[in-house]
Amino acid sequence: APHQIPAAERVSTILARHGGALLADAVGLGKSYVALAVALARQEPFALVVPAVLVSQWRDLLSRFGLHEVPIITHERLSTQTVRPSDRPTVRLFVVDEAHRFRNPETNRYRALARMVVGSRVLLVTATPIHNQIGDLLHLLRLLLRDHALAALGVPSLRTAARRDSDTSLARAAIARLVVARSRER
What we know:
42% of the residues lie in helices and 13% in strands. The chain has 186 residues and is of the alpha/beta class.
């Protein structure tokens, strides 16, 4: 849709510059379509990380574009099974739908995803990147960035900032560079 084109362009730019991005458009704006457009535009292998209940929805979307071999890894698999490096698909981009489910770094799911995406680009997709505190968002950003990646913005350590739920102006600086979030009104 016309409103999705600027989002896809912005996400692509952020991915190219920072190696990761967070797409946090409001519910119903077509985040899945934007994420898929970004992945296809990169013209390189990608994988999806989605909740099990969304696998058929994603398979339907992929098949509309003739894509039948895209690896899909479920959140639940990351939660319950040990993911070894040999299990990792050979991809350059991971698209993580419902990414807010990875806001807690103490879970098996978070740790497995963090290990799996090392060295790859990551596109996180969620309408709700912050549930309880700004630390939720900072933990998500840790999946995209090295711990010290925002030092120039005054955040010497994402891990420390997330634990302290520190100065929100620092998080706003990161959001401006790494997050595409539009409401229906915009």
